[in-house]
Design goal:
CATH class: Alpha Beta
Strand order of the largest sheet: 1-2-3-4-5-6-7-9-11-12
Number of helices: 4
Largest sheet: 10 strands, parallel
Structural class: alpha/beta
Order of helices and strands: HEHEEEEEEEEEEHHE
Helix content: 10-25%
Number of domains: 1
């Protein structure tokens, strides 16, 4: 790998980046302002077969339409850039199992998200996302959904159709209600709700059979006292479930 900040050239990539030959292309920490030309240039076939691509911690502001040519991609990491939108071409990568776009400037997640039906890991943390599309219900293989530090005010109904999800992080959003439909997530193991201004917290959370870890805010205990008391009662003696009530004063971007 070149030193951080070193200019990425065609010569470097074709001569030294042997990872691409094995299905991995790592271009993270390189101070890139755009996708390198060599990926789409005179010998694009060299890169079309890659299965994992990382452009983490660069200065990317857009994803080019040509991203659609990487039809073998299973993992794409674009965290810690300056992306404001996700283009339709991104959602043509139907083999994706992991999509990481945390720490960007995203406000909207398009309906085309539902095309990524093989997705197992979706990282959207530390953006400005205000809502999720109902098409999220089509992500039947999704196991990990990280949404902490966004601007979500409600959860889409489609979220409660995810029958394989095990980790759901909603920490530091604007969500005011966790509805009774939460009990439909039978495979949920971790639910992180701290630093959300929740006014209704469904006591049916306690009925989730595989839940191991539930964290809520101290103010939730006050604002939803009857629900929290019922949850405590239902899980009494259930050693496999840890309920943590924490202060939100440490919740900072």
């Amino acid at each position: 790998m070149p030193r951080r900040g070193r200019k990425v050239t065609d010569e470097y990539c074709f001569r030294e980046n042997f990872g691409a030959r094995f299905g991995v292309l790592d271009l993270s920490f390189m101070n890139l302002g755009r996708f390198p030309n060599f990926m789409f240039g005179s010998n694009p076939g060299y890169f079309k077969g890659i299965r994992a691509l990382s452009l983490r911690r660069n200065k990317l502001i857009r994803i080019p339409p040509a991203i659609r040519q990487f039809q073998s991609l299973c993992a794409l990491d674009l965290c810690e850039n300056k992306l404001r939108t996700l283009p339709p071409s991104l959602f043509e990568l139907r083999q994706l199992r992991s999509l990481e776009v945390g720490l960007n400037q995203l406000v909207r997640i398009p309906e085309e998200l539902g095309h990524l039906t093989k997705l197992e890991n979706l990282q959207l943390y530390m953006n400005h996302v205000e809502s999720l599309p109902e098409s999220i219900s089509r992500l039947k293989n999704l196991r990990n959904l990280s949404l902490q530090f966004n601007e979500l005010k409600r959860l889409p109904a489609g979220l409660f159709s995810l029958q394989r999800i095990s980790h759901l992080s909603l920490f530091a959003n604007k969500i005011t209600e966790i509805p009774d439909e939460i009990c439909r997530l039978k495979t949920l193991r971790l639910l992180w709700l701290r630093a959300c201004p929740i006014k209704y917290l469904s006591p049916k959370i306690a009925d989730l059979p595989m839940l191991k870890y539930l964290t809520i805010d101290a103010r939730n205990e006050r604002d939803c006292k009857s629900s929290v008391d019922e949850i405590k009662h239902r899980i009494k003696g259930r050693r496999s479930l840890e309920l943590r009530i924490e202060s939100s004063h440490t919740a900072r971007r």
